Amino acid sequence: MSAPAFEAFLAHLYVDATTRARFLVDPTGEAERAGLSSDECQTLSRFDWVGLELAARSFDRKRQQTLHRAGRRLGLWRRVTRRFRRIMGTAAQEGSP
Amino acid sequence: MAAAAVAAAAAAGAAADVEDELLKDRVGIGWRPALAAAILSSLDRVDVVEIIADDLFDVSNTELRAVRTLAAQVPCVLHGISLGLASAVPVEALRLDRMARVVEAVQPDFWSEHLAFVRGGGIEIGHLAAPPRTDATVDGAARNLERARSVVGVAPLVENIATLIEPPGSIYDEGTWIQKVLLASGTGLLLDLHNLHANATNFRFDPMQFLAQVPFDRVTAIHLAGGKWIAGSIGERRLLDDHLHDVPEPVYQLLTEAGARAERPLTVILERDGAYPPFDRLLAQLDRAREALAIGRACAAERQAA
Questions:
Q1: Is A15 on the interface with B (CB under 8 A)?
Q2: How far is CA B215 from the centre of its chain?
Q3: Which of A39, A52, A62, B67 is in the most buried spot, having the most CB atoms within 10 Å?
Q4: Global pTM?
C-alpha cells in the first residue's frame, strides 16, 4: 500500500466536491482512477459517508477562516506589545511588583 | 560566616520554590487577539498561556522579541497547527525551520503539535485530518517527530485530534494507534479531553476505557474546549469540536479522571477561538478546571494512602 498516495486521495476527497460526487457514485472506480491498489480500494468498502459530508463541510469552513486569519495576523504582536507596555507602565506607577 | 549561611539558606529556599512550582499543576488559556488585554490584566488567575506558533511564523524579529517579553511575565507554551506530522509523507524542512525559529525566540516551556495530516498530493486540507490508523502512519509519525526533534532541538508533545469521519483505511482503533505512535517516537502526549469526548460520542466508545489505555507517564498537558452538534443531510448528528462553546461537564469529569491517573504535573489549557463570553466566564472555567483536577489528585492520594 502506498500510504502517501492514499493520503493524497483522502485530501482530494475532503477538499474537492467534484471528486466527492464521483466517489459517492462509484467509490471503487474513483479510487482506481486515483491509482490506489486493489487492497486500498478494498479498505474503502466500509466507508463513513456521514462523516465524509460533515468533515468536508468543516474543512471548507476552516479554509475560509484561515484566509481571514492570515490577514489579521499582521500587526498582532505590535498591538500586543503596545498594550503590554501600557499595562506594565501603569503597574510601575502604582508601585506594583 | 553567618551571612554566608543565611545567603545559602535563602538560595536553597528559592531553588525549592522553583522546584515546587515545577511540580504543580497549572491552568491557563489559549492566547487569542480578542482576549489579549483581558489575559494581561488577569495574570494572577492565569498560570500559563498557550500561543499558536503559526501566528508567529511570518512576524519580524522585533515582534518575536515582544513575545519573549510576554513569556518572561507569564509561562508560555507554543502550539503548532500546520506541520501535519502524523503522515507517511515527510514533513517539509522549511516548515520545521519556521517552527525552530519561533521556539528559539520564545523559549516556551514546551511546544506541541497534532497527530494529524493536513495536506496530501499538493492539496491543503485546511485543517487537521485524522490519518489512516495504520503501521505506515505510525512509522511516518515517528520519523517526522524525530526530524522535528532534530531541527527544533526538542520534540513536541503530540495531541489527539477530534475527527468527524472514521479515518478510512484504518486497522487500529484510536487508543491503540496513539499508544503505538508514543512508543515508536518516545514523545509525550497532550491529551485533549474535548477531542476525546467528541470522538467517543461520535463513534460510540467509552472515554474512560480510552483513558485506561493512555500511558499517563507520558501525559504532561491537557486541552479543554467545547463544541456543538451538527447534522448532515440525512439527519445523523455528530459532535463538532469547534472551540466556540463552554467546556461541557463530561469533559471536567474526564479531567478529574486524568488528574487521578496522571503521574506528572499537568499544564491544562482552555481553548476558546471565538464567540467570546465575558472574560470572567472564561476565568470561571479555569477555576472549574482547577477544582476538577484537585478532586482527581485527591482521589489518587487516597488510593496511595490506602
A1: yes
A2: 16
A3: B67
A4: 0.90
